[in-house]
Specification:
2 domains
């Protein structure tokens, strides 16, 4: 199968799965935000921020490491799968037990301890998921199916059993139960269809090697979450629970808009790992094209999102979340930084440059913590949003520096000024033509595309060639 066709196949399955998963997850978030209320939703978001760090500790970098190694040498899938599955399950149970013991000694109300304990159960169910194996095997249809099944069942149960703030504890418990059952089903599928589960393949002496090799990625992911989620934690620790609700509402919309970069990164990671080992010139062309496409998409989303921040927040969460629009109009610019840094980030990991990625994440975490300490006391969740975008820009520069130094250099696209001019015209159209938000989005997209066609930064011929290659390989 040709490279373009392979990436298109991967992307299509992942996009389908991630889109439906994201859509259902977003529905769950909006439903919970509305039925729980700002403060209770803020409390749930605060606890979930801690869960994210625990999940990264439990993963310990095994997911990206396992995907990369399996993609590089498919013949090793049995050994890798059996050992990493066993290691992840045992490690997840140990981490949960340690977290539960720590909770016993913290000076928290019993209800809050219980919420943490039930939420932390998700480290067990999520660590059981064989998603990383499907990634390594490039069987992305199963990745999408697992996520859609999980989210669909969860959404149904949430609507049936969570009716108000008093039902808060039910939300994480239902997520654990559904995750455990679905992960068990797909683990069974893995060992019956894709991997031969042989007890003799389990090599305890190799586990230390896996930990050492995966650790830089795991630590980097912890630092990544520090600069992604530390603002939510710090708002909560400063007793700004309502601010957590507003900030989380804005950020949930951003996460939904990041689906393209998420899917693209996951779909190209195995391909980049193979190309780095076998055809770096083709890898360079691929990364350059991906950067250009992501830049083309990221600029109008950021500009349009900033202008339409108020109607977007009101449409999704309702009038009681109106202050979240201030955070959204700032945070939406992370769309541009994340979209354009994704090809460089995944290339560093594919090239085995985990330490370079680690340095970027360490700098980002440090800067974000310092900025939040300075800005949150005076400016609340708006200060947290400013800290986030400043951190994103700094991390983007560091990642690009290490990518250019240690992988290969890609010059900035000559189409950038044309993209900016087209986005400026689009922004003027959206701002001055007061119409329904859906028509504003459609009209703005049409204006942006039209001006890019007129300026020659994109062409119908180029789009046709890309589609033809994707279909015919």
């Amino acid at each position: 199968m040709g490279l373009t066709r392979q990436i298109t196949k991967n992307f299509s399955w992942l996009f389908f799965g991630e889109f439906l998963n994201g859509l259902i997850s977003f529905f769950i978030v909006v439903y919970l935000a509305r039925v729980l209320g700002v403060k209770t939703f803020g409390l749930l978001s605060f606890v979930q921020a801690f869960l994210i760090y625990l999940l990264i500790v439990v993963d310990a970098g095994f997911t990206p490491y396992g995907i990369r190694e399996m993609a590089k040498d498919i013949s090793q899938r049995h050994r890798l799968a059996v050992n990493i599955i066993a290691l992840r399950i045992i490690w997840g149970l140990l981490v949960y037990l340690m977290a539960a013991v720590c909770l016993l000694f913290l000076p928290l109300a019993f209800e809050l301890k219980l919420l943490f304990a039930v939420t932390f159960l998700l480290v067990i169910s999520k660590n059981m998921s064989p998603e990383w194996i499907f990634h390594g095997l490039e069987r992305f249809e199963y990745v999408g199916l697992e996520k859609i099944l999980n989210r669909s069942i969860l959404a149904l149960l949430i609507v049936l059993f969570v009716k108000g703030a008093s039902d808060l504890i039910k939300a994480p418990f239902l997520e654990f139960v559904v995750g455990f059952v679905v992960a068990s089903l797909f683990l069974t599928l893995i060992v019956t269809r894709f991997v031969s589960f042989r007890a003799r393949e389990i090599k305890f002496k190799d586990w230390r090697y896996y930990f050492v090799e995966a650790a830089p990625m795991g630590i980097s992911y912890v630092l990544l979450q520090l600069y992604f989620n530390i603002d939510t934690v710090m708002l909560g620790l400063m007793n700004r629970i309502e601010d957590v609700g507003f900030y989380s509402a804005a950020y949930k919309i951003i996460f939904a808009l990041l689906i393209f970069a998420t899917v693209l990164g996951k779909s190209i990671y195995p391909v980049l790992s193979r190309l780095y080992a076998g055809n770096r010139e083709k890898m360079k062309k691929l990364v350059s094209a991906l950067f250009n496409y992501n830049l083309f998409l990221g600029i109008p989303i950021a500009v349009g999102g900033m202008i339409l921040s108020e109607p977007i927040v009101l449409l999704v969460f309702g009038a009681k979340y109106y202050p979240a629009a201030w955070a959204f109009r700032i945070l939406v610019w992370t769309i541009l930084t994340v979209y354009t840094s994704a090809p460089f980030t995944f290339s560093l990991l594919a090239a085995g440059r985990q330490r370079d990625y680690f340095y970027g994440m360490a700098a980002g975490a440090s800067v974000n913590i310092l900025l939040n300490l300075f800005l949150i006391p005076s400016y609340g969740f708006v200060g947290a949003a400013v800290a986030k975008i400043v951190t994103e820009v700094i991390v983007w520069g560091i990642i690009f520096y290490y990518f250019s130094k240690n992988v290969f250099y890609i010059p900035l696209q000559r189409s950038v000024p044309k993209y900016l001019v087209s986005a400026a015209v689009m922004g003027l159209f959206i701002y001055f033509v007061k119409i329904n938000i859906f028509l504003s989005v459609i009209g703005g997209a049409a204006v942006y595309l039209l001006f890019n066609l007129l300026l020659g930064s994109v062409s119908l011929k180029g789009a046709y060639e890309t589609i033809r290659l994707a279909v015919n390989g």
